[in-house]
């Protein structure tokens, strides 16, 4: 036990009775009926403390707090604390005086609830001791700890249940909805043959023969009852005649 360890209190009961018990003749266990229950040898307060992994059952005077006897417990259940076979309110504990001398005495509680708390306090302490030992082993040897196996066993399957799944629009086997017409109008079909439209020149003009699309000129149009002929475009004057003029002739 290290000197730096602190002592914690696990349980305190204000009244406990101590009994002298006869030697155990057989291995059948202790019986409280064989004690003089109406004549306890001592009565006082019981306190359970813990220092490190060891618990201590201390019998103290109610008024002064002086220690009457002490029973160190390093294992529970074990020989340091034993239950009797005929009652849940009585126990046999092994007390020590610090000089190597030991003795077994009987203790009893007038209330069953106090006996239950006494038992649970010891159980909880040694559960904690067991957990601390396991944590220390895992810290020293991490590979010894249990490993989480997320793999599938042989023959193991998994099922997925997805309710209310909707098919995607336009998927195979699903008819695509046709767009509704707006205003009750229907689209006109394209013109047959794909012919190019005929150009109509403005009044006072006439398309040249052949036109840009290889068609003949349009007939003269009638404006206000009078027939108007479209004038033919003037032939282009050669560039040389306009630019050079008389310079083409000899000046000599």
From TrEMBL:
InterPro entries: NECAP_PHear, PH-like_dom_sf. Residues 6-162 form the NECAP PHear domain. Keywords: Endocytosis, Protein transport, Transport. The keyword Protein transport applies. Residues 188-205 have a biased composition (Pro residues). It is found in: Cytoplasmic vesicle, Clathrin-coated vesicle membrane. GO terms for biological process: endocytosis; protein transport. Its main location: membrane. One of its GO terms (cellular component) is clathrin vesicle coat. Gene3D superfamilies: Pleckstrin-homology domain (PH domain)/Phosphotyrosine-binding domain (PTB) (2.30.29.30). The keyword Transport applies. Residues 167-252 are annotated as: Disordered. It comes from the Eukaryota. Involved in endocytosis. Belongs to the NECAP family. This is NECP2 protein. It comes from Crocuta crocuta. The gene is Necap2.
């Amino acid at each position: 036990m290290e000197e730096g360890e602190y002592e914690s209190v696990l349980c305190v009961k204000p009244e406990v009775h101590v009994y002298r018990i006869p030697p155990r003749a057989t291995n059948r266990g202790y019986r409280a009926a064989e004690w003089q229950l109406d004549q306890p040898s001592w009565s006082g307060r019981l306190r359970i403390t813990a220092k490190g992994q060891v618990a201590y059952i201390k019998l103290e005077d109610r008024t002064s707090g002086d220690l009457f006897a002490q029973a160190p417990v390093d294992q529970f259940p074990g020989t340091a604390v034993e239950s009797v076979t005929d009652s849940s309110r009585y126990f046999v504990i092994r007390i020590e005086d610090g000089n190597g001398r030991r003795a077994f005495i009987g203790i009893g509680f007038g209330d069953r609830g106090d006996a239950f708390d006494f038992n649970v306090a010891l159980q909880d302490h040694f559960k904690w001791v067991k957990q601390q030992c396991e944590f220390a082993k895992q810290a020293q040897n991490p590979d010894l700890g249990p490993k989480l196996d997320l793999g599938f066993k042989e023959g193991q399957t998994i099922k997925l249940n997805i309710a209310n799944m909707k098919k995607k629009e336009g998927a195979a086997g699903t008819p695509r909805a046709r767009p509704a017409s707006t205003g009750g109008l229907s689209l006109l079909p394209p013109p047959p043959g794909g012919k190019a439209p005929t150009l109509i020149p403005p009044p006072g003009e006439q398309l040249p023969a052949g036109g840009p699309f290889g068609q003949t000129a349009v007939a003269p149009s009638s404006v206000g009852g009078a027939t108007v002929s479209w004038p033919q475009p003037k032939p282009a004057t050669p560039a040389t005649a306009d630019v050079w003029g008389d310079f083409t002739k000899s000046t000599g």
